[in-house]
Amino acid sequence: MGNKVTFKQGWKSFWKGYFKFNGQSGRKEFFWGLLIYVVIRTIFSLSITQIMLNNVDVIDGKSRNYLVIGSLILIAILAVLLFIPWLALQTRRLRDTGIPNILCYLLMVLYFISIYLHLFGLFYQIVLFVFMCMPTGKFNNE
Question: Deepest of 61, 99, 108, 120, by most Cβ within 10 A of its Cβ?
Answer without folding.
Answer: 99
